[in-house]
Amino acid sequence: MGPMQFISETWRLYGVAARNDGIANVDNIDDAALSAAGYLCWRGKDLATPRGWITALRAYNNSVIYARAVRDWATAYAAGHPL
């Protein structure tokens, strides 16, 4: 569901309203991104470490290939490289 591809149960547990309007909308990119960040922090514990990143990403999608791809995209994006 939505741009961050939440499943219904995960959205029910982690969905938050980024705009402080009290309405968490899975199709709103701000709500979805903040909810995904919260989910990753909760699952990965410490996103400041490489291990924490991979743990969080594998909790989102239990695939080493997926976790490495997302890590690489995020690293490139943070460095200002085109994706």
Number of separate strands: 0
**Overall morphology:** globular
- The structure class reads mainly alpha
- Give the N-terminus to C-terminus distance in angstroms: 23 Å
The total number of structural domains is: 2
How large, in whole angstroms, is the Cα Rg? 13 Å
Number of discrete helical segments: 4
Give a verbal description of the structure.
- The protein is mainly α and 83 residues long.
- The protein has two domains: 44 residues, no CATH class; 39 residues, no CATH class.
- Helices cover 59% and strands 0% of the residues.
- It contains four helices and no strands.
- The model has no long low-confidence stretch (mean pLDDT 91).
- It comes from Mycobacterium tuberculosis.
List the helices and strands and how they pair.
Elements: H1 8-14, H2 29-44, H3 50-60, H4 64-78
Helix pairs in contact: 2-3, 3-4
Structure described in brief:
By secondary structure, the protein is mainly alpha-helical. The protein contains four helices and no strands.
Question: What key attributes describe this structure?
Answer:
single chain, 83 residues, mainly alpha, 2 domains, 4 helices
